[in-house]
């Protein structure tokens, strides 16, 4: 039996069963994918949980690791209505994709085109609903550059930049919250600003890039967004959405918000947004941007299971130096994912 901490006590019997199955399946999932990291957090950390211990004697380090692991697994379960098989499938596919795409490399190590960086902004604000803890908002500014079609036509480069923006936002989220009332801290808000963009005449490159991005995020980033705003959208498109949403799931409708004017944003997000969005902040989005990422501790130690096995094998096969020989100090190798 998988020990269930009190922070998951709200799960019903069926949900608890699916959660326990997913935890038990983790070793086989990681082995199949040959990878164990999700959003900068390894699911097979060095301080693996001792399931026989009582909750009140767990160290803070292990408790935090448990919280992060559980919150990440729950995102896959919630996205699949707590179907164990579907959640397992999506988690496995996500790990395989992350091993191949290397999203952490896109976020940390790679340099992206300067014009691409103008398209995305990450901001945070202190939310009074959560004791002024920070919430994350990513801004997609499609009209910020004049060569949008050229940028979007280089699809591979665009997707790696877009994943970089997502991963940098994820690094600011709080996955180790203990109280379920703080669950929103593990979600981010996304805003798409169509100012200076002809919404009704989007070019083929922009449409293709948007389609690929949506598909990728649906597959590999479940339960990340709490709200999604479409800003400076023509009134006609807002009316069309009001008709279409009748056919959408209530959960989807609750997340989507269409605003015809940028000045309406403050009504939803608060006065902290810049004046151009109806707020009181005199600084621009660019001045508020989290351009430099603060790496979670786990990011520097993420390795695939295959890499760990390979390193162990190489160490075992390496000839040991004679005691009288002087062994040079080995350089610390940067982990690249």
UniProtKB/TrEMBL annotation:
Reactions performed catalytically: a 1,2-diacyl-sn-glycero-3-phospho-(1D-myo-inositol)(in) = a 1,2-diacyl-sn-glycero-3-phospho-(1D-myo-inositol)(out)
Pfam families in UniProt: CRAL_TRIO
Membrane topology: Peripheral membrane protein
Gene3D superfamilies: CRAL-TRIO lipid binding domain
Keyword Transcription: no
Basic and acidic residues bias: start-end ranges: 304-319
One GO CC term, this protein: endoplasmic reticulum membrane
Cofactors (names): heme b
Keywords: Cytoplasm, Endoplasmic reticulum, Heme, Iron, Lipid transport, Membrane, Metal-binding, Microsome, Transport
Location of the protein in the cell: Cytoplasm; Endoplasmic reticulum membrane; Microsome membrane
Alphabetized InterPro entries for the sequence: CRAL-TRIO_dom (IPR001251), CRAL-TRIO_dom_sf (IPR036865), CRAL/TRIO_N_dom_sf (IPR036273), Sfh5 (IPR042938)
CDD domains: SEC14 (cd00170)
GO molecular function: metal ion binding; phosphatidylinositol transfer activity
Chain ranges of the CRAL-TRIO domain: 112-285
UniProt family annotation: Belongs to the SFH5 family.
Record's function text: Non-classical phosphatidylinositol (PtdIns) transfer protein (PITP), which exhibits PtdIns-binding/transfer activity in the absence of detectable PtdCho-binding/transfer activity. Regulates PtdIns(4,5)P2 homeostasis at the plasma membrane. Heme-binding protein that may play a role in organic oxidant-induced stress responses.
Name of the protein described by the UniProt record: Phosphatidylinositol transfer protein SFH5
Organism: Nadsonia fulvescens var. elongata DSM 6958
Organismal lineage: Eukaryota, Fungi, Dikarya, Ascomycota, Saccharomycotina
